[in-house]
Automatic annotation (TrEMBL):
Protein source organism: Filimonas lacunae
GO cellular component terms attached to this protein's record: plasma membrane
Keyword vocabulary terms for this entry: Cell membrane, Membrane, Transmembrane, Transmembrane helix, Transport
Mode of membrane association: Multi-pass membrane protein
Chief site of localization: membrane
Family to which this protein belongs: Belongs to the nicotinamide ribonucleoside (NR) uptake permease (TC 4.B.1) family.
Record protein name field: Nicotinamide riboside transporter PnuC
Ribosomal protein is among the record's keywords: no
Function: Required for nicotinamide riboside transport across the inner membrane.
Compartments reported by the entry: Cell membrane
UniProt-listed Pfam families: NMN_transporter (PF04973)
Length: 205
């Protein structure tokens, strides 16, 4: 336990300014997504763009590809969430997935996990291909569902955060692993907040 604590403190002292900024903007992004606030996206663009560099530098190649995807999807989500009808009403509202949605989501997730794992094993020097692929596949799925305002996006973020905490810690990005602990708490809270919003909107409909 003492060794783990010293490793944690050494990691914090070694935190670079890019990682520090990526963590702060990342936390801000998840905080705004929790309340379904469109500011999730500009903060998300900044954080994920920095993490593209950080992931490549740390040899987390699937995570690097994931963050490139994040940048693109943050820009797409920014547009999707900002759309309004002629009367000024938001086009997108929080909804839940039906059985068909779940089938498609699980197929997408399973396909992404397998494809990323095979790519990492064959074409990269990743030392944690299975875990790296799992974290990335669940995050790909979560981001896709969040842009559609599907409440189940939080389930995939919870999975992503649980896997990412040790993944970044063993690579020496201690401050980032702390970020994922915060993300995990926010994801659980986000599910509760979105559920309440969804329930309230359905009662008013």
């Amino acid at each position: 336990m003492e060794l783990l604590f010293h490793q944690f403190m050494d990691g914090l002292r070694a935190t670079t300014w890019p990682e520090f900024m990526a963590v702060l903007t990342g936390i801000a992004s998840v905080y705004f997504s929790r309340s379904a606030n469109i500011l999730v996206y500009p903060f998300g663009v900044i954080s994920t763009a920095i993490y593209v560099y950080i992931s490549f530098a740390g040899g987390l190649f699937a995570e690097a590809g994931l963050n490139i995807y994040y940048v693109i999807m943050n820009l797409a989500g920014w547009y999707m969430w900002s759309r309004r009808t002629d009367t000024g009403e938001k086009v997108l509202h929080i909804t839940t997935s039906n059985g068909r949605d779940w089938q498609q989501t699980l197929l997408f997730f399973g396909g992404m996990w397998l494809a990323l794992w095979l790519l990492l094993r064959k074409f990269t020097t990743s030392t944690v291909p299975l875990e790296d692929a799992l974290a990335s596949a669940s995050a790909y799925t979560g981001m896709f569902l969040m842009n559609k305002k599907k409440m189940e996006n939080w389930i995939w973020w919870i999975i992503t955060n649980i896997v990412s905490i040790p993944l970044y810690f063993i690579k020496g990005y201690v401050f980032t692993s702390v970020q994922f602990i915060i993300f995990l708490a926010l994801a659980i809270s986000g599910w509760i907040v979105w559920y309440r919003k969804w329930k309230q909107e359905n009662l008013m409909a």
